[in-house]
Amino acid sequence: MSAASAAAMVQGSKSKITNAAVLTFVEEARALFKPEDIHWCDGSKDEYQSLLKLMVDCGTAMWLNPEKRPNSILVRSDPADVARVEDRTFICSKSKDDAGPTNNWAEPAEMKATMAKLFDGAMRGRTMYVIPYSMGPLGSPIAGIGVMVSDSPYVPASMHIMTRVGDAVLDVLGDSEDFVRGMHSIGAPLPDPTSTDVPWPCNPEKYIAHFPETREIMSFGSGYGGNALLGKKCHALRIASVQARDEGWLAEHMLILKLTNPEGKSKYFAAAFPSACGKTNLAMLIPTIPGWKAETIGDDICWMKFGPDGRLYAINPETGFFGVAPGTSKSSNLNAMKSMEENAIFTNVALTDDGDIWWEEMTKNPPTHAIDWRRRSWKPGCGRTAAHPNARFTAPAGQCPVIAPEWEDPKGVPISAIIFGGRRSTVVPLVTQAMSWRHGTFLGSIMASEKTAAAAGKIGELRRDPMAMLPFCGYHMGDYFAHWLHMGEKGGDKMPEIFYVNWFRKGAKRKFLWPGYSENSRVLKWIFERCDGTVEAEETPFGLQPAEGTLDLEGLDIDSSDLAEVLSVNLEFLKAELPMIRQHFETFGDKMPKELVEELDALEKRLG
Length: 608
Ligand code: OXD
Ligand code: MN
Prior knowledge:
The chain is an alpha+beta fold. The chain has 17 helices and 31 strands.
């Protein structure tokens, strides 16, 4: 179809849209999905409000008590649609080898044929929302644009919080064809628009398919989080990681934090942790050391490109937080709690009798009664959790009290340090500095995390999650490691320093050795000062560690033997882990860069 006739089919009131590629894409989607009508998202506040109202009118959402939680809604999903579905997530590169051993692969033409069948008529009786969005500040040289369609109002409403949406994005796109195309359907057509609907329509069959070569995403069956808000994990990590490889930059699963010392000097750090290791908490931490200030740039995703001075500059491609609610409280993350005081969307949390929200550990004492996320009456001690463990808050980043003023600077912020971490009850010390970019890449490549329930010291229960990208790297991880090494060669001595941290080390009594949370600012201070070269480090077989007296412990009540233990590498356990690391590397076959195998050999040698 010509662009002119595509325009006639899909434009409706949007007669000013002239981008032929966008119009052709939307017409293709219309012809396939056969929606009742089309809504082009303009990104306005009025639009956001009408989406919330629509969800309330349809029974998908309810207003929370406006005196407790102004302009906020509670959404309860289908119990079968509560999280990202990694086993239904596919990387459909032309060659299976490009997807690598850590991704599900499907041949692109076959997957497109499967999706075409599922998509055919999937939006009957529903509205198709067209959502132009920008990952990153509008017009930033680091940002990227996407256009997605969806038949769930929860998607454009959430995208309003999580990304920049609407007309302004199309203005920046102009006539360019350079945008990621996303098609999303919950897969629950209605006989006609007036048919009765369920509160959270979805489909038991789910597919989250990525086509990295053609920069396309097709998602079917789920309306939840990363399965449906295609800008987040699908675009900003899986597709963007491939773009980043092709174009020489980095798209990473990292928070971005600004740290300022008492003299007013600031540095920016990016940090990668697997899911459920407290990334959002670290991104918003309140330092305990006098005079030091931490501010947030982002809590989940970081895109970094070389700036004119040869340094890596980072943006947060998002504009909101989609955080795990359970465990978040005024004591674990006061700034997150403040970010969601109004204008927030809550999903699968509990409803209190006074019309507010609650989840496990949100308050010291639970409410005496609530409605759980499955709409059942709930009382403490009833044997069920009130919120789903993956319940979420969606809140505008601009509402975070410690958002850095430059968080939307189109040129990004220069990164001084990259921090890797995981949940390790044994072996890994509190903080280690890599000896070089190559050694740091090695440390990132062997990153691992334990489930909280895992018995201390049971190394068999570790999940290797290199750079916290295991579920999010859109190509072969061996090639991804090689890309990291190339970036290091390109950036030379302007590259950030790399550190490896572990807040979760446990002692003999299975008790955490380090208090964590705000006290982690002590480690951040050491990292800051290492970047400046103002404190000494000691060489160990694992890397560089704080020399005696360089970690600021003033005012911290910590047992000296706990401190000694948390700061030390357990060499014997580390040695015992080497065969597992070698096995991990072997899974990447001949794509495993020899430089990282050499790093492993060198570590083995140092361990003697
Ligand atoms: C997330 C995740 O939702 O990493 O951010 O799982
Ligand atoms: Mn994440």
